[in-house]
């Protein structure tokens, strides 16, 4: 790994992958086609892109049953325990409607209401993660969303990965469709004969999925445009090089565009981690991917001080941050931008990917500067509640009317005055 | 106003205004130009679109002083009282970081952190509302945002509206720029010599502003793409026709594309409201705008039952909903989709626009189905906190490793196992 001394505050952020105009026009075409031809368009794109002609887009009970035969009892138990941890954590995010009252009879508040229907996109291929199902479906259920739909591109034999189906079934999701890509996003946004539209679309995907989500944004809501995974480890000389190296590699193996960065004031640690990474890399099954990721987006930044290292971390605003210093808790208040913060030597990042409970859907590519990981909040909306009594309105009518006239809106003023006309 | 009987559940939603490809390419050009030429691009667009050549984009103390001379003491007091109400309401939305602990030493939680810097776009012309300043700046301040920037297009004489400047100054906003349109959004997203970039952009604007916000989304966060204002009044035979008519007109006067709709099971009320609207419309200063809005987007829907009327309301998912029935509170639980809910006869919609406290930035065009009005939540982000103790990790290491291997991610498994290697 490259070791660089960071002496000035630098801009380390990657540019956002926004797709080409050619990709965008392809996506626009697919969306238009799905809106025009519905299911038939979905089936023909599935044939073209996934290599299988489907009679029905729906996953059947039979397919679910077969999926269970391909998942061991041990894995099933782990999925169940992970689901329990995730539910336990997300339950604590749930918010209640509230009101405030005033003596003049005014009542103001916020009504929290779950979304009616949400769609979850689960990518296919190497990224077909049952954990994605858990992380998206459970907060929706905790929020109280009644209709939860999953779509995922089928394998060449027309099936979905067993782990995905088992995870979905364990959570009680009944509506699962075998369709991927921009066409799946179009179907979720606009609906087809088989797939009723949803109100918000969640889940990661390739550039076509991302562009499609961007295009349907407004028609429906979307969660975020997720980029490749990232880890930043903030460590001092007390940290263990082998542990840091293993954690860096766990992100690097995701994707050639994943990013794994160590920030430390210790040159000694930097050198030791670089050596350990080389050593551990050798025996990894996904060695080629991890090596390419480290080559392109990996780095070890050596700062003068720990305080400076914290500033570099805030500049990077990483998806995952591990704090492996002598007193990690002490730094928590200084960390302004990170999707998830893993504290101490035993909070290896994979703990959060699967099991601990917090959501693994997190802001990437520096967007932790302004956005948050997935939570129950993303599955509800808030409506203001306003009740004014007669005395409350009488008391304030003139002020409201004056303000309205200041903004040139006479009918606003008159609406209030109409109540007190003789 | 048109009166229609609604016998079936109908789709009443307007299509989203998404701009033309020509407008989009204009916007892309402006964004690219601002990135390339910075302040100089801002000044030349301001000359072109706003008709004034500025030496400096910054609002000076002198300009603030002059603005105060153009605002009466009464208006100033109302602005201050409105600000107090808005602050009081939004303070109650504030959330604290939280943790949960387990006996094995595990600590999980969420850290709430304010955004570093936000930009507020205030439209110019007839829509230059001081209330916009209050509604966007106060939740940012309650959230703890340190840097708050306002941009707004200047008048032909190179000034900003007095009300906007006074409202901004009352709240202590120091960074105010005289620039509007897509160029302002580009500056907020990418920065120029004068304007440092922000992390999230708020505020309404014309189609160019909306398209620009859409384009910079990802580089920064944006609040929402706001459409024309809307009101739906849900009323039964106990409601007063003159009050409903006045409230409908208060939305209709906003914009020719604004929408004002009455939904009622009472044909008698429908007829009376239609008559009252005609009568009150006659003497309105913004009669032409209100009449066009009613013609194009106004309607009175008459249903068979009140329950059916509630379903029509949910279908419309209005920005503003007034419930003027005998027992409005009783219907609250049935209303699933509305930006703000005004209950009872004395909660005229303008009460919420300026004064009561809840935010007037609300989801339009049916997006209340999946989104919420502006709140303190939009000015903070949440980071997960994960601390695993040695015993906690030891207890779960094997399960996490198994799950990782199920997803084909060996390095994830090894990262956990690395902690317990001899």
TrEMBL record, chains A, B:
Keywords: Amino-acid biosynthesis, Histidine biosynthesis, Metal-binding, NAD, Oxidoreductase, Zinc. One of its GO terms (molecular function) is zinc ion binding. Binds 1 zinc ion per subunit. Its cofactor is Zn(2+). GO terms for cellular component: cytosol. NAD(+) binds at residues 121, 183, 206. NCBIfam families: hisD (TIGR00069). Belongs to the histidinol dehydrogenase family. This is Histidinol dehydrogenase.
């Amino acid at each position: 790994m490259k070791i660089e001394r960071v002496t000035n505050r630098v801009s380390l952020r990657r540019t956002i992958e926004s797709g080409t105009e050619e990709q965008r026009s392809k996506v626009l075409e697919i969306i238009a086609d799905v809106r025009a031809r519905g299911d038939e368009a979905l089936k023909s794109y599935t044939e073209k892109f996934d290599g299988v002609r489907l009679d029905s887009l729906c996953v059947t009970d039979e397919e679910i049953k077969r999926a269970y035969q391909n998942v061991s009892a041990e894995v099933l138990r782990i999925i169940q325990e992970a689901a329990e941890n995730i539910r336990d954590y997300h339950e604590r995010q749930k918010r209640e409607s509230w009101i405030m009252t005033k003596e003049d009879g005014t009542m103001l508040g916020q009504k929290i209401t779950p979304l009616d229907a949400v769609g979850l996109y689960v990518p296919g291929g190497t990224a077909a993660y049952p954990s994605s199902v858990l992380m998206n479906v459970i907060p929706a259920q905790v929020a109280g969303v009644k209709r939860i739909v999953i779509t995922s591109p089928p394998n060449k034999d027309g099936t979905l990965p067993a782990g995905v189906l088992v995870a979905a079934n364990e959570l009680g999701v009944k509506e699962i469709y075998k369709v991927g890509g921009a066409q799946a996003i179009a179907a979720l946004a606009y609906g087809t004969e088989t797939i009723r539209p949803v109100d918000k679309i969640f889940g990661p995907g390739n550039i076509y999925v991302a562009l499609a989500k961007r295009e349907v944004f407004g028609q429906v809501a979307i969660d975020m445009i997720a980029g490749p995974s990232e880890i930043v480890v903030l460590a001092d000389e007390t940290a263990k090089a082998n542990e840091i190296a293993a954690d860096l590699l766990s992100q690097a193996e995701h994707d050639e565009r994943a990013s794994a960065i160590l920030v430390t004031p210790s040159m000694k640690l930097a050198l030791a981690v670089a050596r350990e990474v080389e050593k551990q890399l050798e025996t990894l099954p996904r060695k080629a991917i991890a090596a390419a990721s480290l080559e392109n987006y990996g780095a070890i930044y050596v700062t003068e001080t720990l305080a400076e290292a914290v500033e570099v971390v805030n500049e990077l605003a990483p998806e995952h941050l591990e704090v492996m210093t002598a007193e990690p808790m002490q730094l928590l208040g200084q960390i302004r931008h990170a999707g998830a913060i893993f504290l101490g030597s035993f909070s290896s990042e994979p703990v959060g990917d699967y099991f601990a409970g917090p959501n693994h859907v997190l802001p990437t590519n520096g967007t932790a500067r302004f956005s948050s990981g997935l939570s129950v909040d993303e599955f509800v909306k808030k409506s203001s509640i306003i009740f004014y009594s007669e005395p409350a309105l009488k008391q304030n009518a003139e002020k409201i009317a004056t303000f309205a006239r200041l903004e040139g809106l006479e009918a606003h003023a008159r609406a209030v005055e109409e109540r007190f006309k003789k």
